[in-house]
Amino acid sequence: MKRPTITDIAREAGVSKGAVSYALNGRPGVSEATRHRITAIARELGWEPSETARALSGVRAGAVGMVLDRPADVLGVEPVFLALLTGIQRELGPASLILQVAPDHAAELEVYRRWHGERRAGGVLLTGPRRDDDRIAELPRIGLPAVALGGPLGCPGVPSVRVDDAAAVGEVLGYLAALGHRRVAWVTGPGVLVQTRVRAEAFAAVAGRLGLAGARTVHTDHSGEGGVAATRRLLAGSRPPTALLYDTDVLAVAGITALRELGLAVPDDVSVVAWDDSALCRLVRPALTAVRRPVAEFGALAVSVLRDLMTGGDPGDVRTSPPSLVTRGSTGPARPGP
């Protein structure tokens, strides 16, 4: 018979997995009445902490670790990163979040080994999952529970939390096609990232279905300088795009700067869409049409799944609520031309 997990208790009690975790670990965050109801249901279902959870009982206050895979100067100007941290910390409550920047994957793995050996973190949130990612095999081997921020990975033992980016791509391209755009370009991140692959594959498939023969993808890093350079390359061709989709809000703002330097108006000459909606998208002029993803929910859900994994659950991959497209002044009808 399958051992009951936090997910089963949450379903039976009609509460979130985070609330179950608070109640079973004696932490603030739920009322006493809810705590008693959850613990009673746990007893009825025969729930008990797994051996993994017992082994982690000495880890400092249920701390969760996250190693960042982007340069600190890039992270410092990404509003979406702050939204992610807000969701993570909201779900963690009083527990600690340990953050560290690593220059490469080898250094990142050393951080994980040190955290596990020093019992500093009971589990980790894996950022920027990649194709053929050596971290995916190594983390279960050393016994450190991990949840990937992005996917799907299809890796037993390392569940992922993800947003339905393919659906968002379809909504964006459908909207641009309805405005008459046929030459659409995507300025996206490094091709080794899983999220880049998922979006790029969806972009190619939807563009083909809509007959957007001029659709193309350009890879860059996530810096403003990379966004400017990619925009200049795209506009230098004989048939430049009439609409540009950028992987982040920072890249989109950099792209608008490059367009203005080239003497082009947004959206009269070129429409611009940003992938992540943020305050930055609303402050720039014209305000950016953007894909609004549930980033704070994404972070909170990742912590909830990680806690389930740490206490013996087998949550599998989880998807957030769907993203949506917010239209603003940076997009308009395609300019007539060849």
UniProtKB/TrEMBL annotation:
Task: Cite the HTH lacI-type domain residue spans from the record.
Answer: 4-58
Q: Which CDD domains match?
A: HTH_LacI (cd01392), PBP1_LacI_sugar_binding-like (cd06267)
Q: Which Pfam families match?
A: LacI, Peripla_BP_3
Q: Which UniProt keywords apply?
A: DNA-binding, Transcription, Transcription regulation
UniProt GO molecular function: DNA binding
- Spell out the residue ranges making up region: Disordered: 312-338
- What protein name does the entry list? LacI family DNA-binding transcriptional regulator
Q: Which organism is it from?
A: Amycolatopsis heterodermiae
